Amino acid sequence: MKLKNILAFSFFAMAFAACETVDEDERFIGPVDFEPKKNVLIEDFTGQRCVNCPKAAEVVHQLQETYGKEHVIAVAIHGGGLSIPAPAGLATEESKAYTEHWKVESWPKGLVNRNGGLDEYTSWTARTIAEFMQEAGADIQVKPRFDADKRELSLKTVVTSKVTAEGKLQLWLVENNITGYQSMPDGSHNRNYVHNHVFRTAINDMLGEAISLTAGEQKEYQHTYTLADAKWKAENMAVVAIVADASNQVLQVVETPLLPTQP
Question: Per-residue pLDDT tens for 22-47?
């Protein structure tokens, strides 16, 4: 399907301690007409005490509204000094460790297909469009089966390689529609903020399991995971499957609802 960006993004820089501010001349504005060749993963490093993080979340929302959630896959990773640890907040031991792995020291920050390193949220639109133009290095199909009584997820992931390389497969669980606290850009405290695409856990290794990619070859991977946290709502959850190369750049990413009846 041909996609067209008809939105202009406008942001107001505000100076708040430990949160990133960006000059007006760094905004991306403009219509772009193209056929996407690969999906884009935005890893949004965020925190519930970060006043500018809702602005980053809005950029993600606008990108998904414009280009489709099937093409723009976001994961909100809570960690660092502006996060609130679970169970009161959304930062888990895994998400905190992943934040440290990427050496995030101020928020919000993001990775767009892990190409070019950490970047400001006002650059995500331009980076996303650039990544749409790149060839995908793999196709991914994710087939989940969820036993509601046991809260057990059985997952089959089919990877069809388009390149020959050493790579890694990452399988993450994210959850939408989580109502909780968030510091806001105007200095207020919103206790009913709706957090989306929140990283909950890794089904396999957080940094991925090693896989070998051979062009034209299809491989299947089987995993099981039990949702131990009763607060996690399966109807709001999805699997994010990422195939990356040895340098961590994303070759392809897809998101699949945990339950087939999810809208």
Answer: 454 444 445 456 678 999 999 999 99
